[in-house]
Amino acid sequence: MRFYRAKIILLSSILVVGFLSSPAKAAVNCLAIKNWYPTEILSGNESGTGKLTLVSAAAVRSSDFKNVYFVAVKFKATGVGNQTGVWAVNGTLPQKAGDLSGLTLAINPIAQQFTVWPKGNKTNAKIAVNDRSVADAIKCLKK
């Protein structure tokens, strides 16, 4: 009986050590983004939504798609308060006015509801709201 008890304790210890030493998630690398670009995104508002006003914005490089950036934008909308939308842009992350070389896609339901940008989940890329970079971009807003 002692032998089995010792074996169970040893196996339990190995499991705990394995769990504790498992690799941690990679840190989110938040990228600086100029305010003009999120304002440009918001200028594509759906008719009837009223003016969308930028509150804050953050971006991350996609961990799943090559040359794609996810941009989370917190904005004020007439009559509904603050909202957070996420858009994806391919190519380079725009840094100066007029630097729009890529395609902008609306990713989460808020982005799709409030703006006219094409829906990312309806494109060939099938960029879905559950892509890990969407959550990462939103986390960057809170930093």
Q: What is this entry, summarized?
A:
This protein has 4 helices and 4 strands; from the N terminus they run ααββββαα. It is of the alpha+beta class and 143 residues long.
Write up what this structure looks like.
By secondary structure, this protein is an alpha+beta fold. The protein has one domain. It is built from 4 helices and 4 strands. Strands 1-2-3-4 form a 4-stranded antiparallel sheet, with helices on both faces. The radius of gyration is 21 Å and the shape is globular. The model is unreliable at 1-24 (pLDDT under 50).
Name the structural class. Answer: alpha+beta
Query: What is the percentage of strand-forming residues?
Result: 15-25%
The helix-strand sequence is HHEEEEHH
Mean pLDDT: 80
Q: Domain count, please report it.
A: 1
List the total number of helices: 4
Strand order of the largest sheet: 1-2-3-4
Structural Rg: 21 Å
Termini separation comes to 54 Å
How many DSSP E strands? 4
Major beta sheet summary: 4 strands, antiparallel
**Quick one: overall form?**
globular
Low-confidence stretches: 1-24
Q: What is the helical fraction, as a range of percent? A: 25-40%
